[in-house]
Amino acid sequence: MEQDKATNLAKRIIQLDLKRDELLEELIMVSGNDALELLRRVQNA
Which of 11, 12, 20, 34 is the one with CA 20 to 30 A from 1? Predict the structure, then answer.
């Protein structure tokens, strides 16, 4: 069923988004004000 697959994919995307937010909060706690700059540097490496 394509509808079931689409629903499952949507749920997985939401879970990933929530995990991303959780990890970003942790990065901010560890890196402080430099967190977003660090994220950009690593992303562009």
Answer: 20
